[in-house]
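Good morning C.,

I know you're traveling, so I'll keep this short. The sequence:
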Amino acid sequence: MVRRIDTDHTRFREIVRGRIKKNLKKFVSSGEMIGKRGDRYVSIPIPQIQLPKFRFGKNPKGGVGQGEGEKGDAVDGQENGSGEAGDAEGRHVLEVEVGLDELAEILGEELELPRIEPKGRKILSSLGGRWKGIRNVGPQSLKHFKRTFRQALKRQISAGTYDPENPVIIPIPEDRKFKSRKEEMIPQANAVIIYMMDVSGSMGKEQKEIVRIEAFWLDTWLRSQYRNLEVEYIVHDAVAHLVDRETFFHLRESGGTKISSAFELCDRLIEQKYSPLEWNIYPFHFSDGDNWSSRDSEKCVRLLKERILPCVNQFGYGQVKSAYGSGQFKKDLDAALGDDERVVTSDIPDRDGILASIKDFLGKGR
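The tokens, ready to paste straight into the viewer:
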């Protein structure tokens, strides 16, 4: 039997889910929720849900508060207040915790994202499957009561101590049965995201924030497709470096831009750590489109064709608009690799363009 509170909770979750879907573009473009992220949950402010509230008025049937006294008299222990009552309604905001898996599901539904078919397999040892086994020893938390009771009943019947008039079954330690499961070798697909970002002087704070927000949503979707996901971060100006997440999103440089340095480091990382036979690989590069020369852009195309693309599921390039970027690099990639389905390029003019860019990157289901 379903309890009333369970029904109410389910209905509330459906209301929250509907509000998130309705305002998904706003949530995607805001970095507020990313700052309130836990390991598996994220806090989302939902201002459209009405909070329960009391209505004050006369109650002809009597009840609490209907005794002696005049309107405006102080309650015992309190003094008269001062000032006039306001007539404007307050703005009610609920902060609701939503699981990252559910958030990924909502994103997939709204953008109609296809499920990803992993191309690489790696055999991992893990405890999997259902609790089908039975053994004679184990912790009390895994005690199989039905099997234990049945064993005790069989023992008492065979020993002649079972009394149908007084059917009391008392298990002894030898009767106890416990649930168990076997350790199995389960094929498990792994994935790695390699984020690369131009941190030269033309990439400002707002551009980095756009990249940070988009990376959060890319992570969220890919984690829903793979149980084991690793993330690597590469920053570059004229030279590339492998860094941690904090450095990736907050480093500010002022040098020139040499994109090939990031692609070379990405290639070395794949070769040394992520075999394409075992890993599904997703490199994403973000910049404002400036590169130091056309010769370096040609070198980037060669690295992609000969080294990176044969190893990866998909290569994504996101071009974030800035006041100083020319936007030329996306044109070069489109001209050289526009027919290769493993290459996806996307313009990100501002925060409102993040949702469309996510659709560009994830819409092929590679």
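Safe travels,
E.
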